[in-house]
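Look at one such:
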Amino acid sequence: MEGVEDMEWYRHIPAFNVVSEHRTTMLVAWVPPNIAPLVEQLPDIKVKKVLIRLLRRFLGNQNIPEPYKIIRTYWHTNPYMRGAYSYIKVGGSTGDIQELSRPEPHTDNPVLQLCGEATHDSCFTTVHGAMLTGTRAAKHIINSYKKTPVIGP
């Protein structure tokens, strides 16, 4: 059986996306869930070399510079994720997601506030959905403390 480093895992990459919302431009390579566990075992230098070789070959330009840094997620092996993400079940709707995102109890002083990509009605299944809902929950909690009367001397 061939080793992980010998597999042609790069053939399964469906897309590269350019992200230029920050000071530098990032290129994101998407790895499908069935290949991610294998790629997570590879050293960064191997992934970097394979991806730059793929880009140069695909674009027909050997002068594409190597990236100065590679950042990877370990979605599959992360013990808190294990490769999971949410989805709307058959017969479900974004209303279900909105209900999940409502604080409990539905008052100005909630005890429970859920966040994460599963609670964003248009960015579910995404990291930025998780980040946006974390910010939303934090703001809600901060606002609830501002409204809570201070008890004490």
